[in-house]
Amino acid sequence: xxxxxxxxxxxxxxxxxxxxxxxxxxxxxxxxxxxxxxxxxxxxxxxxxxxxxxxxxxxxxxxxxxxxxxxxxxxxxxxxxxxxxxxxxxxxxxxxxxxxxxxxxxxxxxxxxxxxxxxxxxxxxxxxxxxxxxxxxxxxxxxxxxxxxxxxxxxxxxxxxxxxxxxxxxxxxxxxxxxxxxxxxxxxxxxxxxxxxxxxxxxxxxxxxxxxxxxxxxxxxxxxxxxxxxxxxxxxxxxxxxxxxxxxxxxxxxxxxxxxxxxxxxxxxxxxxxxxxxxxxxxxxxxxxxxxxxxxxxxxxxxxxxxxxxxxxxxxxxxxxxxxxxxxxxxxxxxxxxxxxxxxxxxxxxxxxxxxxxxxxxxxxxxxxxxxxxxxxxxxxxxxxxxxxxxxxxx
Length: 395
Ligand code: SF4
Hints:
Layout: H1 6-15, E1 20-21, H2 27-37, H3 42-54, H4 68-77, E2 78-79, E3 84-90, E4 96-103, E5 106-115, E6 118-122, E7 126-128, E8 143-146, H5 149-163, E9 175-178, H6 188-199, E10 211-215, H7 219-228, E11 232-236, H8 242-248, H9 257-269, E12 276-282, H10 290-307, E13 313-319, H11 333-345, H12 377-386
This protein binds iron/sulfur cluster (SF4).
């Protein structure tokens, strides 16, 4: 278990002594709550975690192995408040999407993707996103706020309840990827605490490598993540050259590719056998040309050399999923295959991610939710869309 920010959780608790949301606590901070605030033994905290995350019970009155007095005490001090399901939709291919209300004005999306022998949940970390990656639907919505730990783990809880998931027994949910709306490393503490619950046997019991955090490249926070957690790291690369990457992922202007790759090397070197996944969204005539494939091979070969492990760098090729107003297009299947072949010929494994759930707008890069933009960027974006030459408005 990674160190939990107990002090923070407890002090947040003291300012809301009346009713705190138990979903906000991982094991360590819930134990502290039981011991320091309720004067109860630690194992009571464990019982409550099991009721919530294994049995999906949210009423203290239904937690029948707790004594009456403790249940009454909990009623007075705490709640188990899950996100509200605004609607959910099932895709013909088994993918399932939820729109979850986080507050009266904002909602985020969570997607479950079943596949052979695995079930992956794509979880959001923020309401909207401020990073403005040019090919991303979430970015067009602007940014409102970070999600709390309760709002992040609440997404897992909603999906687990829907699926009838029971950790270690009825495992429907085998993987979580922090790849939904938002940049997870910009919401560090809440994301790390939520990932701790995902990996805890009293939570969802997922192995470290089955929880993946995907970042656009917040270099100092990658190092910080390496200090407190051991989850799988994925990096949204999308271009092997700085000029192009800075256009597609504006964060690259702050943390260019060389710095980003150094941080990835440091992350991988902490523990022998660690690989890093590099996501590469293929956009027609933008980053799908032979020189891009050559640049990618060079970059990732160098990564393998530095980490001293063959295939330490894994590539995921993601054909661009169009959304209204975008200036980008998906390459043809032939172009995608040609790009992949170039990587394969250089000895790299580079699977093409199958598009899932596109009939319900749940495919990669299509998540939108409902965001009351506080950055005003979405209003500007809409204005540009209405202007002449609107097809290029997202540029
Ligand atoms: S790709 Fe990720 S980091 Fe970039 S704008 Fe979209 S949600 Fe934010």
